[in-house]
Design brief:
By secondary structure, the chain is an alpha+beta fold. The protein is built from twelve helices and 19 strands.
């Protein structure tokens, strides 16, 4: 970890821009922590970011500018370099493999770190769908000659070096709009790393022990739910589902006959994931329309609506974990994060559906300060993870899992101090529910159908 380095994370979400300025702790027991120097959270207008993709460059640029100014004021920093998130339905995941003949192998030299990094760099030219750019290359196992499943190839001797990789790509027009929104905020702003949002979040909410033992992180965002599986400190599987917190809000709006903004408030203030213990006689008054008498809504009905949608999400996640082949290797179980992870008793529901250990994840390893307390919630998890991405490696076996920073400059940049074979991409739509029950192979009657 790079001590004393100052890093800034900018999380571009569907509803808000979150910014974190942080610094790596210098020594002693604090060396695995980060200190929060500044933070901000600025809403983005409805429709400015849709399904994780920037649609209105001016509106998003204006929100980024405001958020950076607020974080700069709180931290007393002149922010010129940032790490930025990308996510959404335009992101695709594929499994690919590649291999090279090492030019120095004939002299009997061992595999070097340079060999491994060159193999990873070559994967950025992998064959993917038109109009998509490779943004992450995540190595799983390597191959050295006839030895497969090699975790650490450096130091081994062999002629051929190969590897199996998870390749994360994104629509290049969406990425271009993200870069333009940064330039609109500040022409001198430079993007150091562009990081897949759920991957950044995992850096903030998962412990080192969980990543080693085996863990499934489930990030329930506004438009999508993302799954990342770690085992033996390696990213083994990534999947995304086009369903998230916004769908819960939509269900409440429809079921209770209220507007979306009232439903969102209802979800946050009174929502719970388990309806069984809610009495039938508790009523909630909802001011759903100006000048009208508040509407009476049963808390039991609110819980039932939320519960049914969360059962669906939990079942999708569980089926995908089974499909990945890592179910029996996830000693740590599931960690839930994202805005909807704040719903009361959500971990209880996920435990019933999946029969796995579940906890709600919040940012880990923060120096305990008033600023840290203010950001120790799901709203800032991705932004904190973006800061971590500038302080520690996502995979220490390689130089970087991110596309080189030179690809992400927003314009005329000035750094301000101090500051092969392709498998099918993971599908986000299709006939999932046609065979989910056969994939899961079990049903919890206490939760009704799911």
């Amino acid at each position: 970890m790079a001590h004393d380095k100052i890093v800034v994370g900018v999380d571009i979400g569907s509803t808000k821009i979150a910014v974190i300025a942080a610094q790596g702790a210098a020594s002693g027991s604090r060396q695995n922590n980060i200190e929060i120097l500044g933070f901000s959270e600025v809403p983005v207008p409805a429709g400015a970011v849709v399904n994780g993709s920037v649609e209105n460059i001016k509106q998003v640029g204006s929100a980024i500018k405001e958020a950076l100014a607020e974080a700069s004021s709180r931290s007393d920093l002149d922010i010129g370099v940032v790490n930025v998130s990308f996510s959404g339905t335009h992101v695709k995941i594929s499994s690919q493999s590649d291999g090279v003949i090492r030019p120095s192998a004939s002299s009997g030299e061992e595999v070097t770190q340079r060999d491994v990094d060159q193999l990873v760099d070559d994967m950025y030219r992998a064959k993917i769908e038109p109009n998509f750019d490779v943004l992450h290359v995540l190595p799983m196992e390597f191959v050295v000659d006839n030895s497969t499943g090699v975790r650490e190839p450096v130091g081994r001797t062999g002629i051929k070096l190969g590897g199996n990789f998870l390749v994360v790509s994104a629509n290049n027009q969406s990425i271009l709009r993200t870069k333009k929104s940064l330039a609109d905020a500040d022409q001198a702003l430079r993007c150091d790393k562009l990081v897949f949002g759920p991957l950044a979040t995992s850096l903030a909410v998962l412990t080192d022990n969980e990543i080693k033992a085996g863990i499934a992180m489930v990030d329930i965002g506004d438009h999508t739910t993302d799954l990342i599986i770690y085992q033996d400190r390696i990213v083994r599987h990534i999947a995304s589902f086009p369903i998230g917190g916004r769908h819960i809000t939509s269900d409440l709006a429809s079921g209770c006959g209220i507007q979306a903004e009232n439903a969102e408030r209802l979800k946050k203030e009174y929502g719970t994931a388990v309806s069984a213990d809610i009495p039938l006689n508790i009523e909630i008054l909802v001011n759903y329309l100006a000048g009208r008498t508040p509407k009476q809504v049963l808390k039991k009905n609110v819980a039932l609506i939320i519960e049914e949608r969360l059962k669906e999400i939990a079942a999708m996640v569980y089926a995908e974990i089974i499909r990945s082949g890592y179910l029996d290797k996830l000693i740590g179980g599931i960690v839930l994060t994202g805005g909807s992870a704040n719903i009361d008793n959500i971990e209880v529901l996920f435990e019933k559906v999946t029969d796995m250990s579940v906890r709600v994840g919040y940012p880990e390893n923060l120096e305990r300060t008033a600023k840290a307390d203010a950001v120790s919630n799901a709203s800032f998890s991705t932004a904190i993870g973006l800061a971590w991405a500038g302080l520690k490696s996502i995979d220490p076996r390689v130089k970087s899992v991110c596309k080189p920073a030179t690809a992400f400059n927003t314009g005329n940049v000035m750094h301000k101090e101090p500051v092969k074979e392709t498998k099918e991409p993971v599908k986000k739509n299709g006939t999932f529910w046609d065979n989910i029950n056969s994939i899961i192979g079990k049903k919890d009657d206490s939760l009704d159908d799911y």
